[in-house]
Amino acid sequence: MGLSNYKLQITPASPSEAGRANYKLRKGFLSVLKILFTLLLLYSFTFYLLPFTPSVFATHCPDSDYDCRIAEIQREIEQRQQLSGEYHRATHHRQHQRMRLRQHGIDLPGEVRGSLKNLDENAKNKRMVEYATAAFGQGISMTPIETARALAVLANQGKIVTPYVVKEIKYAVGFSRTTVTDEAKPILKPETSETITRMLVHVVDNSLLGGTVKMKNYSIAAKTGTAQMAREDGKGYYDDRYLHTFFGYFPAYNPRFIVFLYTQYPKEVKYAAYTLTEPFMNIAKFLINYYNIPPDR
């Protein structure tokens, strides 16, 4: 009898009732795990990202009732502070170490450093006002070299550098010593520094003394600063005594120089634009001519 007379037929076995029950149980268990994992992701997203979400102050006060609206906003701020408190406590030390004022090791004797004591104490007493006042220069102190170094970040495409005076020392015996500084570290995005540079150029071209100091062939990024002077007894600030500052770098989009000027308690003039603009522009023109800097516009 030949093999062709036989037919092979395979019939899949039907799962037993127990097998179907086990399959359904496993499927249900996996579904529960998926739901729990999704809830965990949502919780993590809410916990970590909520403190950084821009707050929309939904007040329930009439537009004319400013006291009520201020109270509502204050409550919202306090809630946000509670939500983000753990994050700030975890990252404050790292961020503060990055911005801590210190002696920079420049090759000049007698260097001192400023003080961020108020910001240190703020981490303990949670006085958010200290950060606000520091934004316009009150409650902290900085030396001129610290200020120039910080502002030079804008001119260096967001990188902070260590300043020095002498590049190289050549000794009579035949060898030399070159000044070695820390590697430039990025602390701002290049596009951020470029945006701020364009804003500062706009200030010089259109606003500084009414736009009368604009240079036709050179772009200059600069800004004035007028600050109240602190009282000697440590109780607040004078209403009629000011510290004037002026900084700028040029050519703005390929800087060769940065200049920082300041004067204490100028008499009979309030704003720095009227005391330091002319000295700054005279210095800028001299440097451009002396070093034969090519025009950038």
Could you walk me through the main structural features you see in this protein, from its secondary elements to its overall organization?
Among the domains are: 72-98 and 111-141, no CATH class; 142-290, DD-peptidase/beta-lactamase superfamily (Beta-lactamase, 3-Layer(aba) Sandwich). 44% of the residues lie in helices and 14% in strands. The chain has helices at residues 17-49, 66-99, 117-125, 129-135, 144-155, 190-207, 273-290; strands at residues 159-160, 168-170, 176-178, 185-186, 221-230, 237-250, 257-264. Strand 2 (168-170) and strand 3 form a beta hairpin. The longest helix is centred in the first third of the chain and has 34 residues, at 66-99.
Question: What's the SSE blueprint?
Answer:
Blueprint: H1 17-49, H2 66-99, H3 117-125, H4 129-135, H5 144-155, E1 159-160, E2 168-170, E3 176-178, E4 185-186, H6 190-207, E5 221-230, E6 237-250, E7 257-264, H7 273-290
Antiparallel strand pairs: 1-4, 2-3, 5-6, 6-7
* End-to-end C-alpha gap: 102 Å
Please work out how many helical segments DSSP would assign.
Answer: 7
Instruction: Point out poorly predicted stretches.
Output: 6-13, 45-59, 84-101
Helical percent range?
40-55%
Query: Can you say what the CATH homologous superfamily of one domain is?
Result: DD-peptidase/beta-lactamase superfamily
- The top-level CATH class of one domain is Alpha Beta
> How would you sum up the major sheet?
3 strands, antiparallel
**Global mean pLDDT:** 77
Radius of gyration: 32 Å
Strand order of the largest sheet: 5-6-7
The CATH topology annotation of one domain reads as Beta-lactamase
Strand content: 5-15%
User: Structural class from helices and strands?
Assistant: alpha+beta
General shape: extended
The total count of strands amounts to: 7
Report the order of strands and helices.
HHHHHEEEEHEEEH
- The CATH architecture category of one domain equals 3-Layer(aba) Sandwich
